[in-house]
């Protein structure tokens, strides 16, 4: 067994390998770019070596720098993780030439499976079922169009090299083929430096099922059952589960044997995944083989009780496979959800920024979180925006689904847009809950997955206001503790007044909606009003923004995370980003106010609240100005009419300029 290994990767997979290696008594070396100088995998490893600037091509894709680091630190082997150089046959050969073990398959196996066309030719020889199509070298557009017509529409044009959904188009009509082909070739050429494509029959309502295989250097190979990866967006996986719902024992054995045949055809060693397209009628076709560990491998680990990284290390050191095929068994059901920094409502655009608050659900025998980041780390534009993989296990699919639903409801992310709420909606749609799976599930469930935005629930406004009152009280106690007059009655925030109880507003905003929460202190708590009947509230604050609250007769648990002016309310599985707003009345004094309401300071117009031409009462919010890292509402100084706004949202303004044309009325 190795004494020291180098991990030629970053993020959660690097952390995962480090954890297993440490348990096995193996020292670890991390490599990192300048952007990852304080990354979690760097902090976890025994040693770390800087290999270049942030861009992957100048760091994690520099085989020479990685091998230099391995030699300098005395690492005996390199674990490539997934992505980057994990399926690069030249890197595998360079490791061997340098006297360093490559923890993965032989370079010849990587080459054989690196081209989808060549791999399918090889699979046909090995007797592995193939999708009807053309996988040859003739790339003449007219010839490919003729092949498509022969196959029968719809067809799928797919880049022969690479993956990740790049260079892939479905074509339904012959007149669309030429444009789709040209687009695929351009995308493939830009992404992989190779514009060769293949054309296959497009399987209607297909499922994406993959088989985990493992081979050793002694000629043995086993399959560790299947994973269903059908739930995808733009050909990229979102949810994965094992075993595949509805899989019969006979079909599992047939697919497993086909995967083993595929691996043996290239003398495969190590962890690999053979991916299939499965038809509703039970037939299946070879799609490709990934010659590395997969992102979704934890669901296989959860149902088998095995550590696949440990298997990788043992096999790479020359040991035989730890178990035979007849010793492997499935226990329970596991589901993995990928937590990404992305905005599902904006086409899943990646989001970057600092993770101001990151609180995953607690881990247990049923819940596992694989992550490469912690609170305070940043999601940068240089790499994949994955925050974590959330994996759950239970005795049945229904029980595992309930675990996942609960775990997602507990996930707290502030600082970047994220897909946690989207995932909660996704696992709740009937088609997923009932295992009616295929690769178009997200597209056909658009109405359920992207519902119209509703109004902020009253409870959310009340919880945000209650959290603000508790924060004010805690700040007051902290200041009073060190003050010479800390026992003064004037430091008591009980709202006492000589002629009655005090009432004041807390202004909160969501989008362009501003809510004035009226606060009055009463015995044992507060009465809060949203413009209607007052509600008695009180609560107890816990760590990390946790809030145990009583709202009228109802008791609820929530989390309110403070970030500058933002108040992120997590309640009943949803996140509501509110803003605390300061009130500024800048139109003068008395009842003679008219003309323009002026900017009290330089800032940016964030939102226009009132409508042009609207009649408003005194104190009504007109617009929101962001200044000095705080949001401020400009309010009507008296009853009047909004004649015009002089600036639009996003405009920068200077101190003293007129913001609103306002006409006071009697």
Label this structure with key terms.
26% helix, 666 residues, 33% strand, eight-stranded antiparallel β-barrel
Can you walk through the features of this model?
With 666 residues, this protein is an alpha+beta fold. The chain is 26% helix and 33% strand. It is globular and about 90 Å long. 44% of the residues are buried. The model is unreliable at 588-594 (pLDDT under 50).
How does the SSE layout of this entry go?
Layout: E1 4-7, H1 11-23, E2 27-33, H2 40-44, E3 47-52, H3 63-73, E4 77-79, H4 89-97, E5 101-102, H5 107-114, H6 116-125, E6 133-134, H7 141-151, E7 155-159, E8 168-171, H8 177-192, E9 197-201, E10 207-215, E11 221-228, E12 232-233, E13 236-237, E14 239-242, H9 249-265, E15 270-278, E16 284-290, H10 297-304, H11 308-316, E17 333-340, E18 342-343, E19 349-350, E20 353-354, E21 357-359, E22 367-371, E23 378-379, E24 386-394, H12 397-410, E25 412-414, H13 420-428, H14 430-433, H15 441-444, H16 446-449, H17 458-481, E26 496-497, E27 500-501, E28 503-510, E29 513-522, E30 525-529, E31 535-541, E32 546-551, E33 554-563, E34 566-571, E35 574-584, E36 595-598, E37 603-608, E38 615-616, E39 621-627, E40 630-635, E41 640-645, E42 652-653, E43 658-664
Parallel strand pairs: 1-2, 1-4, 2-3, 4-5, 35-40
Antiparallel strand pairs: 6-9, 7-8, 7-9, 10-11, 10-15, 12-13, 14-17, 15-16, 17-24, 18-19, 20-23, 21-25, 22-24, 26-27, 28-29, 28-35, 29-30, 30-31, 31-32, 32-33, 33-34, 34-35, 36-43, 37-39, 37-42, 38-41, 39-40, 41-43
